[in-house]
Structures are given as structure tokens and as C-alpha cells.
Amino acid sequence: MNFKNLPKIELHCHLDGSVRPSTIIDLANKNNIDIPSKDLEEIKSMMVAPKDCKSLDEYLKRFKLPGLIMQDKESLDRIAFELMEDAFNENVVYMEIRFAPLLHINKGLNTKEVIESVLNGIKRAEEKYDIKGNLILSCMRTMDVESSYDVIEAGKEFLNKGVVAIDLCSSENERFSKKFEEPIALARKYGYRVTIHAGETGIGENVLEAVEILKAERIGHGVFIKDCKKAYDVVKQNNVTLEMCPTSNLQTKAIKDIVNYPLKDFHKDGIKVSLNTDNRTVSDIDLSNEYDIILNGFNMNERDYKIIYLNSVEASFADENTKNKLRDYIN
């Protein structure tokens, strides 16, 4: 199958992990920002994680350079627009972009302004291209729990206006869910949907707690439910969709090699999975490549593609009119 030409849906894509290297240089020049180099290949080498990355924490170091640039309204707007444009160019018809607003307030913007700027870029792309986007607000597990309330409150007025969900991300420690139970409960009360990074770094029990304590409807990654029967069972029984990101998981050592990637086994057993890039620049990947790696690599067929596509539609946080349009692309 030629996945470049097929409609695709992406539910797990980080804004700051998907910035064009050329844009980093251009914005640094425009805004007089000091960066280590102005050579495109050197900048790319600082933004793309090595194939032999030793851990998730080493992988996350690739976000430092974009963080220097993404501190003003125009830059945030442009980077969001370009991500949507890149996705459209490989026939992604719907995507949910996630980012942590509190990483972008270092030069005077407030949290609301950060969120609004990214939404403006998404909306500009929607006006120009046949692609629909929504925004997921991530809270950093490495920050104080109280900081998550700032994100939740700032994003509240944009619910159903582009903002659809709340997320927890960054380094994954054991038993993090209990610590964030109250802010995530408040977010659900306001109307946020919930997706949580969990089970990415060998702790399957984190997926269990993300579902049971935080009421996660989707799990980012979730690879290690393969080693935790309780987590596996709760995901399957509750129809929780896994947002799986093969290349990223290989780089962060969630898996030793792609041959052992559990997506096909999950899929065959009735667990709902979606395919995603995680970070297009950091992993040097697009969604067509991810589909090729998994569906062609594991001898999956057109029926598998359609099931994964439709699972992604149902698991998306889009409104029903958007979902109907997405279904029509392959029905």
C-alpha cells in the first residue's frame, strides 16, 4: 500500500518536536535570538534524536532549541501553521496537536496568549488547506502540580473553539497519577477530554492508574501494558485507545527493535490502536513512514488500515460533524 496517498489521522503529535529546522534559523534571525549555529545541517543534528538514543530523557533534550524560539505570538502561530501544512502535504486529514503552554511564557507571554497564538496558526491552516486540527494542552509532570491549574484555567475559554483535551507529559516516574488527580478531575468537570502519556518507559502500572484514577480515554504510547496484565485488561475492557508511536518508541528504548513492537498483537486482540509520529522532527519521520514501517513491515493489509483509521476517528476528540466527514474519506 502507498500510504502517502491514503487519508490519515494523527492523534499524538508534539508541536515543539515537529518544528522545521529552517524555521528555527529564520526566526532566530528575525528576532535576534542567539542559537548555536546558523548552518541548516548543524541545526538539524541538534533537533533530530540519534537512532541509538539511550533513553527517553536523552530524546527529550532535542526540545531545547525549539524552546528558545517559541516564545512570541508570531513564532507560535507560524510553527503551528507549518506543522498543519506538513501534515496536509502527506494527506493527513485530521490531527490533534499537543504542547505544554508553560514552556512558552519565558519572554512575557501569558498562558492564554500562548494557547491563542497556536490556535491562530491551526485556524489559518484550516482556511488554506483541507485539513482539520484541534489542540491538546499538556501539563508537565516535571513541574509543580499547582502549575497545571494555570494551564487548565487558561485553556477553559477555548474549549470547543479548538482546545479539546488535557494531557500529562515529560519524564515518566512511577505512580504519578495520584499526584495529579485533583487538577485532572477539575479539567474533566470543565469539559476537557483526557489523554495521558503512560507506559512509555517500562511502567505498565502507570497505564492502569491513568485509566482508573485520571479516567484517561486515551493513552499516549502504552507500550508496557504488554508486561502488566491488569493494565492490559483495563485498556481492553474500557475501549481505551493507545496512541502508538513506533519510531519514537524505538529511539527511547521502549522497545529493543521494531520486530518486537506490540502494535499488531494489540490490534489482533481487539485493543484499539492509532498510529502516530510523536515528534516529526525529533524522530525525523512522517505518518506515511510510520504506516509503512508497521503495516507493510508486519504484513498487515487494507482491512487493518481501515480499522486503525476508523478507530482513530472514533477515538478523536473531534465533534460529530468532523467525524462524519472523516469517515466519508474511506467509506
Automatic annotation (TrEMBL):
One of its GO terms (molecular function) is hydrolase activity. It catalyses: adenosine + H2O + H(+) = inosine + NH4(+); 2'-deoxyadenosine + H2O + H(+) = 2'-deoxyinosine + NH4(+). InterPro entries: A_deaminase, A_deaminase_dom, Ado/ade_deaminase, Metal_Hydrolase. Substrate binds at H14, D16. It comes from the Bacteria. Its cofactor is Zn(2+). Its EC number is 3.5.4.4. The record marks H221 as: Important for catalytic activity. SUPFAM superfamilies: Metallo-dependent hydrolases (SSF51556). Keywords: Hydrolase, Metal-binding, Nucleotide metabolism, Zinc. Residues 7-330 form the Adenosine deaminase domain. Binds 1 zinc ion per subunit. Zn(2+) binds at H12, H14, H197, D278. It is an enzyme of class 3 (hydrolase). The keyword Hydrolase applies. The active site is at E200 (proton donor). NCBIfam families: aden_deam. HAMAP family: A_deaminase (MF_00540). Catalyzes the hydrolytic deamination of adenosine and 2-deoxyadenosine. Belongs to the metallo-dependent hydrolases superfamily. Adenosine and AMP deaminases family. Adenosine deaminase subfamily. This is Adenosine deaminase. It comes from Paeniclostridium hominis. The gene is add.
